[in-house]
Amino acid sequence: MVKITDRDEKIFNILFRLRYMTPKQLSDYLGCHIKSVYDRVEKLVNDGYIESTLALSINKRIYSNGWMLRKNHEQLSYRKKVVINKNTLSEYLLINDIYIHMIKEHGVKEENVTTEREIHWKKIGLTDKRKKIIPKLVIEQDGHLIAIEFERKIKKQDVLRDSFRNYILYTNFYCLRYLCATENIKKQIIKTAKKEDVTFVKAYTIDEFFNGIDIIGF
Fold first, then answer.
1. Which residues sit opposite 21 in a β-bridge?
2. Mind listing the pLDDT tens digit of every residue in the chain (218 residues)?
3. Global pTM?
């Protein structure tokens, strides 16, 4: 049986928070060479701590927590085996990259980030817990809660308007930040927010974010 180290515990914790990660993402998160990730995770897989799956849809290895860690977890939802859905996999992995970039390049403290998976049971920022308003990430900055959404398709103005309205009525987020797959999606969100006189919404392209623009400043 492999002896669990502090770095192993860090791996287990982030996998519970994000569902799953690629070897490259774990390497970036831990700040170590990818070979050391492969070598260590292989031992953890053999002892049931980690599950390793080849996602054929993107031809990448995916790591999630194994049965040894899930079976007695205090959160019942975390005891279930993580199901990899090929339709949402790429988006979830992009959110992982956003999370890692936030803490590595934007100086956001990891304890100030709540992931979508955690929001489902923490309900942070939600004033009406019956409403299914679950942002991709929540950042706590200077005592304020910032909701982070990702948009990969252009939505109709009435859909965006309803989304803005729900955030206003049923959450206590200080502001809402959209990361957009394209410039046109960004423009549509900005246009709708301006038309509806919604000032707590800002939008950026995903490229702008990864190139260093500050999306959480007020």
1. 63
2. 899 999 999 999 999 999 999 999 999 999 999 999 999 999 999 999 999 999 998 999 999 999 999 998 999 989 999 999 989 999 999 999 999 999 999 999 999 999 999 998 899 999 988 888 999 999 999 999 999 999 999 999 999 999 999 999 999 999 999 999 999 999 999 999 999 999 999 999 999 999 999 998 76
3. 0.94
DSSP run (H or E) holding 201: strand 201-205
Range 177-187 burial, b when 16+ CB lie within 10 A, else e = bbbbbeeebbe
φ/ψ of residue 204, rounded to 5: -140, 155
Domain boundary (34, 58, 84) is at: 84
- Determine the 3-state secondary structure of 127 from DSSP: coil
Q: In which domain, by residue range, is 133 found?
A: 96-210
Asked, for residue 217, whether it belongs to a domain, the answer is no
Residues 197 and 112 in one domain: yes
How many Å apart are CA 170 and CA 210, to the nearest integer? 30
Pick the last residue of a domain from 49, 84, 119: 84
How many domains is the chain built from?
2
Q: Which residues pair with 139 in a beta bridge?
A: 113, 146
Q: The domain that contains 26 carries what CATH number?
A: 1.10.10.10
Q: Are residues 119 and 67 in the same domain?
A: no
Three-state SS for 172? coil
